[in-house]
């Protein structure tokens, strides 16, 4: 029997139908986080349904549309979606994130359940996404160290290949310094350490560079607590005014920068995306791949869902879904996408197991948030060969490329001694909207992250 609800019941039901979801996107610098977030927003606000075949709410013609709305915190900078999209449409990659920003989307859809259809004309999902520099994320392990322990960890990195020679001038300058709490000396040594970190980052020689705010200071530019660098082991062995000052700065950095950022940002996350650029790490060699794995493992340790751990006591996380993304899949021929996925899964084997054990739903995908190369085949003496065609990011020249194969598992150092990976970097493909920018498997990502909230 059909019946019509009074308008008052529909209004009340509509108020109950509003949902709120907080999504976090985490990745090491270079993973393509800005492009991923820009593409995700575009798919939800502009993309036609035929571009998202695995996003069920669109394929069932229940999706009514999405729009950007003002952020709840008016003082927080807005993620520059429109500018980023314009740059992608012009064939340029948007600039990396340099400060905290946020964007809020309102998604409207028809309910799937017959009873909800009686009560509601539509439902609303408010999606809140906060963006931040990836460098800040790597400060998280500092919360579990004191200053001497942190110094030991930093010098273990600086004394290793391939950064030892780069760090030698800073080591010498530090060894010659008087251990006094002089403001000019503090700033000079901080400047030298900051330049060392920036050089290592620019040359992509290491991942765990701390403190992250020396790389991306944002509003802390010039703040005294950023006068922070690691003393040498022999300088830590005895008390000194310089050591005391640096210990105070380290504690202030923990309590006033790292702790509030992670508490405010991660406390209420519902869903999380963790991104990794495995191809870029393969290009740089075995040590880079190992460092990427270690950095991801360190980060994920602090998203533990186990009972009664310090992170839960402090932040009370409630993330119930985690999507692991092997980014830049378009830089491979399609037959290698499965290999890329298997490589990421092996790199994260232990965290994936722990997440499942802790009843957190996980998924792993090889994704291209923005496609930058066309796949094709060419005839060679050996027969048909898979290839890519695109405009090289380094020169802007149109190039046909044979990217080769991705190892199925973590390759040994011996493999790198005899083989050089050379996965290219292309500029975004340009074409008429709404077909461009193109994407690969963003519909599957959306279905996993949002599908259960759009029923």
Describe the structure.
It is built from 18 helices and 10 strands. The protein is α/β, with parallel strands linked by helices and 455 residues long. The protein has 3 domains: 7-135 and 267-371 and 432-453, Rossmann fold, CATH 3.40.50.300; 140-264, no CATH class; 374-418, no CATH class. The strands form 2 sheets. The protein has a 7-stranded mixed β-sheet with strand order 2-3-4-1-5-6-7, with helices on both faces. Strands 8-9-10 form a 3-stranded antiparallel β-sheet, with no helix packed on it. A hairpin with a 2-residue loop joins strand 8 (374-380) and strand 9. Helix 8 runs antiparallel to helix 9 and helix 12 crosses helix 13 (286-301).
Relevant terms:
globular, alpha/beta, Rossmann fold, 18 helices, 41% helix, three-stranded antiparallel beta sheet, 3 domains, seven-stranded mixed beta sheet, 455 residues
CATH superfamily grouping of the largest domain: P-loop containing nucleotide triphosphate hydrolases
**CATH 2nd-level architecture of the largest domain:** 3-Layer(aba) Sandwich
Spatial strand sequence of the major β-sheet: 2-3-4-1-5-6-7
The biggest sheet, with number of strands, parallel, antiparallel or mixed sense and barrel status, is:
7 strands, mixed
Level of helix content? 40-55%
DSSP helical segment count: 18
- Beta-strand residue percentage: 15-25%
Tally of discrete structural domains: 3
User: Are there runs of 5+ residues with pLDDT below 50, and where?
Assistant: 1-16, 304-315
- Record field, number of beta strands: 10
Query: Pairing-aware structural class of the strands and helices?
Result: alpha/beta
H and E string? HEHHEHEHEHHHHHHEHHHEHHEEEEHH
Shape: globular
CATH topology (level 3) name of the largest domain: Rossmann fold
Distance between the termini: 24 Å
